Amino acid sequence: MNPAPGPRTHAPSQEAAVVQFYWEFVAREDKLKEFERYYSSEGLWATLFRKHPGYCGTILLRDAETPRRFLSIDRWDSFAAHVGMRAQFSAEYEELDRVCEGFTESERRIGVFEDEYDENS
């Protein structure tokens, strides 16, 4: 008989994510593979973000109706963690951003959203 399942084994930071940065991209047709390689949950952006302990993961979604349109969701345990990563790794961030400019026709930050909020504040 198998024992009852144990507790969930997600990394603690995934459970604690409270801030999500949403970005919309339209990838260039001739750069789809590169775009996906850089922006996926295992891509080079995620690799950079993982250097900071406040990073909780990335989700990359492809639009079912417009296959070159993507939504990226970067999850952090706090807004301050994201700011800290940008400050700590600013040179790497800027270089990666420069390289990725050639992969897209458009890029738009949709906003920063909280998973939970205090209704009394």
How is this structure best described in words?
- The protein has 121 residues and is an alpha+beta fold.
- It has helices at residues 12-16, 32-39, 44-49, 79-88, 90-100; strands spanning 19-27, 55-62, 69-76, 104-114.
- It has a four-stranded antiparallel beta sheet.
- A hairpin with a 6-residue loop joins strand 2 and strand 3.
- It is globular.
Task: Put the structure in a nutshell.
The chain has 121 residues and is of the alpha+beta class. It is built from five helices and four strands, in the order H-E-H-H-E-E-H-H-E.
How much of the polypeptide forms β-strand, as a percent range? 25-35%
Q: Strand order within the widest sheet?
A: 2-3-1-4
Overall morphology: globular
Helix/strand/pairing category: alpha+beta
Rg computed from alpha carbons, rounded to a whole number of angstroms: 16 Å
Low-confidence stretches: 1-15
Number of strands: 4
Separation of the first and last Cα atoms: 50 Å
Could you give a short account of the major beta sheet?
A: 4 strands, antiparallel
Number of helices: 5
Range of helix content: 25-40%
Average pLDDT value? 87
* Helix and strand pattern: HEHHEEHHE
